[in-house]
Every structure is written in C-alpha cells, then in structure tokens.
Amino acid sequence: MLAGKQAVTAAEYEAFIARPENLERRFELIEGEIVEKMPTQQHGIITLNLAGELRAFVKAHSLGRVAVEARYRPPDDAENDRLPDISFVADLSKPVTEDGAVPFMPDLAVEVKSPTDSVRKLREKARFYLAHGVRLVWLVFPEPRIVEVYAPDDEYTLSADQSLTGGDLLPGFTLPVRQIFEV
C-alpha cells in the first residue's frame, strides 16, 4: 500500500468489482490496493497449456479440482482477494464456491507473467501464497521460458529443457517446461 493511501477493505472491493463498468474486467485486492490484471493472448495460451495438462492429470487421478482465475481470500484477511491464473484444491469435500471469493487458499497457485507484471511483484505473490497455506507455487515466465517453483522449504528454477513436477502434492505429474510455452 502506498504511503498516504487508505487500504481498501474486502467489502469495498466487492462493491467495486460489482459496478456495471467493472463486470467484464479482472481485479485483485493486494494488501488493500485494487490491481487490474491485464493478460495478453500469449498469457492466455500459456495458461491454457498448463491448466489443460494439470486438469487432465488431476481428473484422471481424482486428486481434486483445478480452476482458472478463481478468487481466493485468506480467512480473517480483509485486505487481500487473490486471483491466481491457475489453482488446485486437493480436498474434494470442500464445497465449490458459487459466488464471491473462495474463503480459503488453494493448495497450488500458478501465476503466468503478463507484460505489465514485475518479477518482484510476482515473487511477492509467491511469498504471500506460501505464508497463507499454499503448498506449492509455480511462477511461469514466458521470457526467458522458465518456471520458478516455490514450496515452504524449497525454491528452484526450471529451464525449457527440464520438466515440471507436482512433488508430493501431485505425485506423478510431470510436464516438459517447453510444452508450457508452445504457442
């Protein structure tokens, strides 16, 4: 939050995104600041490539649910409402949220860098997700075609000639990184 600016609350954020002029736009509430997401065609293709592979694997193994651009709000946090590009929730007993933000955080959060995103902000998101119970975070960078992987006790970078795995969260999931970037 910028000095001198008052933080927007979750209730104010809900009212803002419900305005008619905002219904077709995508926003996040980050530390009390409303931030618009500005994806590109490349972003959408990369997101679909990864989400498609992830969903097929999760469905084939009955491991949980995969979502694209689902809103999540950490419990007891009125200044954050996050919209990961892709998310995975392992617990099928949790009900599907049909209105508003999911009232808990996913097990996996994936962010694909858009041209308007800064590397610093994406890494801050990864730290936020981990601090709020997310078990695995993948940050996908179209240039230089890498994926940064974050877990509570580990972080590393994968290049295009390596494979992304699901670790303990998604055992058996593997995807060559280069396939994520096929346009």
Explain this structure to me?
With 183 residues, this protein is an alpha+beta fold. It has a single domain, classed as tt1808, chain A. 25% of the residues lie in helices and 27% in strands. It has four helices and ten strands. The chain has helices spanning 10-18, 41-60, 119-131, 177-180, and strands spanning 27-30, 33-36, 65-68, 86-89, 108-112, 136-141, 146-151, 154-158, 163-166, 170-176. Strands 3-4-5-6-7-8 form a six-stranded mixed β-sheet, sandwiched between helices. It has a two-stranded antiparallel sheet with strand order 1-2. It has a two-stranded antiparallel sheet with strand order 9-10. β5, α3 and β6 form a beta-alpha-beta unit. The termini are far apart. The relative contact order is 0.14. The mean pLDDT is 93.
Task: Indicate the topology.
Blueprint: H1 10-18, E1 27-30, E2 33-36, H2 41-60, E3 65-68, E4 86-89, E5 108-112, H3 119-131, E6 136-141, E7 146-151, E8 154-158, E9 163-166, E10 170-176, H4 177-180
Parallel strand pairs: 5-6
Antiparallel strand pairs: 1-2, 3-4, 4-5, 6-7, 7-8, 9-10
Rg over alpha carbons = 16 Å
The count of strands amounts to 10
CATH architecture: Alpha-Beta Complex
Number of helices: 4
Parts with pLDDT < 50 across at least 5 consecutive residues:
none
Q: Helix and strand succession?
A: HEEHEEEHEEEEEH
Q: Helix/strand-derived class? A: alpha+beta
Give the CATH topology.
Answer: tt1808, chain A
The first-level CATH class name: Alpha Beta
Average the pLDDT over all residues and give the rounded result: 93
Q: Which percent band covers the strand fraction? A: 25-35%
Number of domains: 1
Distance between the termini: 36 Å
User: How would you write the strand order of the largest sheet?
Assistant: 3-4-5-6-7-8
Q: What overall geometry do the principal axes of the alpha carbons give?
A: globular
- Largest β-sheet summary: 6 strands, mixed
